[in-house]
């Protein structure tokens, strides 16, 4: 299709951005084309996207002029940061400031900011229910994403605030999948008690984002929460057992135990799960499965995701 509108996607080789890039490319009659932003245009992932038809460009999100160049002549943009690369909430906030400065100098009609809650609105720093981390955060990889929403609003930018959910892909890539114990059973471990954990396939985040872009600027200024399914730890364990043909059990631990597991970011994740547990209604209610389905009719539930990905789980 001629005269297609450009959507610039940051984090194009990551889970969220990659899903959006592929969603745009797979829509052969759509009104959009995609500019995939990566730091390394020679990487295997970047080359794979280029072969699928994406325009590949490089940008440094620490450099406003570099971001401006990636936004040149674009209709829309998908902004996402990756806290786990550097573990610095302050750096993440500066990255968003750079996005906003570049967007203000561009003529974008619609943008999406991939965000999360600022948990300090629920748990102030002087609230000792969970420890304060990095001196001024409760959940560092959440808090500055949520805090940065004000930057888009104050700049008057037409922005949809997309609140994402737990990636089921974490069960494959980040060691959260079923682990065999001495009793011969497999366990998944979360400090969630019996509360529901909204989750989804990482690929579906990008597909939902594409649905927002297709709906157009009428979605700007809205906060949209997405999820594929909301399940308790026990419900996930039961579904794992059925899909994998082995007994998987839910190991519920206290947040303080999880915070002390010793892997990088364990304290952050322990606080995150505690926040999701203690404020479960607030966290779940904003993440609508119905809205997610309207944006992405191919939305996977956990059973579907397991069926497609069970061979990737390292049992």
Describe the secondary structure blueprint for this structure.
Blueprint: E1 5-9, H1 15-26, E2 32-38, H2 44-52, E3 55-58, H3 64-71, E4 76-79, H4 89-104, E5 110-115, H5 140-147, H6 149-154, E6 159-163, E7 166-167, H7 170-173, E8 179-180, E9 186-190, E10 197-200, H8 202-215, E11 223-225, E12 229-231, H9 233-244, E13 248-252, H10 255-259, H11 266-278, H12 280-285, H13 289-295, H14 302-309
Parallel strand pairs: 1-2, 1-4, 2-3, 4-5, 5-6, 6-11, 7-10, 9-13
Antiparallel strand pairs: 8-9, 10-12
Q: Identify the strand order in the major beta sheet.
A: 3-2-1-4-5-6-11
How far is it from the N-terminal to the C-terminal residue, by CA? 46 Å
Which oligomeric form is depicted?
A: single chain
Number of helices: 14
Mean pLDDT: 96
Q: Nearest-angstrom radius of gyration?
A: 20 Å
| Topology order in helix (H) and strand (E) letters | EHEHEHEHEHHEEHEEEHEEHEHHHHH
Number of beta strands = 13
The SS-based structural class is alpha/beta
**Which strand-content bin applies to the residues?**
15-25%
**3D shape:** globular
- Give the uncertain stretches in residue-range form: none
The biggest sheet, with number of strands, parallel, antiparallel or mixed sense and barrel status, is: 7 strands, parallel
Helix proportion range: 40-55%
